[in-house]
Amino acid sequence: MIRISQLKLPVTHKKSDLEKKIYTTLKISSSDLLAWHIEKKSLDARKKPNLFYVYTIAANVQNEKRIIKKNRNKNITIKEENDSYHCTPTGTHVLTYRPVVIGTGPAGLFCGYALARMGYRPILLERGASMEERQKDVQDFWKTGKLNPESNVQFGEGGAGTFSDGKLNTLVHDTHNRGKEVLRLFVKYGAPESILYDAKPHIGTDILAKVVKNIREAIISMGGEVRFHTKVTGIRTKRSIDFSDEPALAMLHLEDTKTNIGEDLLTDVAVLAIGHSARDTFGLLNLSDIKMEPKPFAVGVRVEHPQDMIDESQYGKNAPESLPAAAYKLTAKAKEGRGVYTFCMCPGGYVVNASSEENRLAVNGMSYSGRNGKNANSAVIVTVSPEDFPEKGILGGLAFQRQLEEAAFAEGQGKIPVQLFGDFKKNVPSSSAGAIAPQMKGAYSWGNVRSIFPEFIARCLEEGITEFGKKIPGYDRDDAVLSGVESRTSSPVRILRDETLQSSVKGLYPCGEGAGYAGGITSAAMDGLKVAEAVSQKYMAFDNPK
Ligand code: FAD
């Protein structure tokens, strides 16, 4: 295969233009181009209004070596690396019980899938509801405000990313092709092939929900089991045989979240993929032998602007309609040295009430695959670290999140509190919208979002948004809509794990975002694969790998 990089074509080009560009660049006839596919596609908007797609192409041609020699071009090379992913169990320890995966977010789901594929017949436990039931619970919450603390935007099949923008990009360095494998599995189970090459892959909540259900069915068909409404409420340890004095996992206590009926499940291996919002479970872990530490995270607001305004800033005026709703990523440094940055930006999306606890309110962003909502929204957040938390100790960050969420709930009287940026600066409540109508899932109420925060955070947010106005004209407009509180940006704790990926309780594998080893859907799923590999390096599978 030959790889051609930096192939540039105007954004309005046709597929036939790209094919022609491939054989003319290689200086071959069309009949010598046997097959080709796109490896990467990105948008180059640096020379607005001239917009280009830049491609990396893999091409199968006659006489590869002769063509490389003839062209002498650094953008035309032989494609050498192999991007396949393999994991074969090499473990020798015999498992007495089936391995358990706690949580069916991307980390738990992909870990469970990989274990099932290798013949481990895992049992997946999820405190929340199945996708079908959960979708009804979430819609009901957005309509009536009645929260189901076990089935909501954070909890339930698919985890926190289910009602999301479905961005699948990650900054994790992919040395084992885990990221590629995650995207390939997404495609296998229902996502469009374009995510394999788009520089900013995105599928939206609608496609994501279908993929999650299909992966669940695949896990079951490979001998796995998925149990909903099943929360882990206790972890029992024993003294480990092979680690002499170290505690090892012996049993999980489970509770049916609908009936509250308890049950014990014997197991020697459990993957703890509980996400960053399982505060009760963090509390439980804190009382056990499991070592954890507090970690920095970020808090702030969600900001809405008209998508047209963002499109114009990124693409210039009169850009072709075929272009996707534009995204952005901005950073600034506040005067006192703290980082302020945009996070989880949702083009053509909605702000969602993403709460999971009674009398506390958190927001986030979501979009559908078409990204055709009127507004662009993004979190604008400020880094906070353990020194900033009023309460000290391992769960100090969690207590700080709760404090902010209680203030947001009180400010909006149970609805999402919203404020115009002009009023945020003056620290006065807003009473109505300007030219931007909030696009929200869940009821909202005009008020003073600034009052939710300690002054140092409010000041940094104001400075950051003002600074962003220098990069995107209108970003700091007085009628930009701010809502709060963005408090679930990453985990407030890290559950420590050793080089075999086990916690201080042997057999218990912390995994994904909640444990502090991922940030986002794809990286959580990659960590799920990594943990499945670690389990397979220690324990023998029950069945032959699929
Ligand atoms: P989670 O997805 O949080 O999954 C943990 C699961 O464990 C949950 O289903 C929970 O119910 C279950 N659980 C918790 N405790 C227990 C217990 N005791 N017993 C049994 N089950 C338990 N990321 C992106 O990359 N792109 C995006 O576009 C994006 N948008 C987002 C939009 C929203 C609204 C939200 C909330 C998040 C978004 N994220 C996005 C972040 C992304 O969802 C997370 O990074 C990702 O889901 C983390 O995966 P995880 O598997 O580690 O944890």
From TrEMBL:
Residues 296-489 form the FAD-dependent protein C-terminal domain. It comes from the Bacteria. This is FAD-dependent oxidoreductase. It comes from Dorea formicigenerans.
